[in-house]
């Protein structure tokens, strides 16, 4: 079985993202739908997070899957977004687009069509 994430690096990124969002483990557990005990084990590196848990954590933390895992094929393909017209920074737009492209890639990997 191929492991996509390593507990030592992913757990640290999850903790950093949670702290940056100023959330407790209990608050993040509630927002993500992951049990607090499970989240604690993930953050301690005692348990590897499953992809659906990483996705739930990314949504709850307002970050991308690649920011939590350090792995991104999408990000390497993302070169240019669009012109900002509503006072949004290019960095913000690129981050949002990256998040949606990663979600699309995940759904495609799971065999879920983008349009039903």
Any overview of this molecule?
The chain is built from seven helices and no strands. 62% of the residues lie in helices and 0% in strands. The protein starts with 6 loop residues before the first helix and ends in a 7-residue tail after the last helix. The longest helix has 20 residues, at 90-109. The chain is mainly α and 116 residues long. The protein is globular and about 40 Å long.
Mean pLDDT: 79
Span of the ends, CA to CA: 31 Å
Structural class, please? mainly alpha
Fraction of helical residues: 55-70%
Helix count equals 7
Major pleated sheet:
none
Low-confidence stretches: 1-7
Shape: globular
Query: How much is the radius of gyration in Å?
Result: 15 Å
| Beta fraction | under 5%
Number of strands: 0
Give the topology string: H per helix, E per strand. HHHHHHH
Features:
116 residues; mainly alpha; 0% strand; globular
Outline the secondary-structure elements.
Blueprint: H1 7-20, H2 25-32, H3 36-44, H4 51-61, H5 65-69, H6 73-77, H7 90-109
TL;DR?
The protein is mostly helical. It has helices at residues 7-20, 25-32, 36-44, 51-61, 65-69, 73-77, 90-109. 62% of the residues lie in helices and 0% in strands.
